[in-house]
Design brief:
Blueprint lengths: L2 H5 L17 E5 L5 E5 H11 L3 H4 L8 E7 L4 E7 L4 E5 L4 E2 L6 H17 L4 E3 L9 E8 L2 E8 H5 L6 H20 L2
Antiparallel strand pairs: 1-2, 3-4, 3-8, 4-5, 5-6, 7-9, 8-9
Helix pairs in contact: 4-6
Amino acid sequence: MGFISWFFGCGADNMTPPKQPASASSNVSSQDGSDYKIADVFSGLRSQVFTLKLKDLGLPEKQPIAVLMETGFQEAIVSLVVIADGSTSLYFSNGGGIIGAGEHDSVRAFSKNFLADVSAVADSWEIVKEAPLPKQGQVRFHLISSKGIQSIEATEQDLGHNRHRLSPEFHAGHAVIAMVREYSDSEK
């Protein structure tokens, strides 16, 4: 079974997004004009992450708050979300996802390393007021810290084939996804 099939619900019963009424989603264009059907639950959860403050998490200042690694697939956008308190989730723009994977020590360890790795390389990233969604075939990283939201985008192909300076972080993110997948499969 392919990785994308697993993402979009063919590999696990809990991954199949619920049927959404028309009012529970909207069409959003990414930067390349591709239309994605964005479920309200995706928008709401994503917005909550971008408004987090360290004091809300009970954590000391001067550390990253969260990182999102978002990938634009033809079917939907997949967002890996890692928060400094160890929370780790996958959100799918079509309404599916996995929440609570950070409760497992192995996922938490990989997530902590991923957040640290991304934070270490984000100094030169653009600071943005809004966090745009990635284009199809693109991966967008967002780091939320006391500086605000720092963002950068690259092609999935370049990242996956080690042709981009963020390839190590991309692969670290996929290690987290693999751990989330293992957690999700063990919950069946």
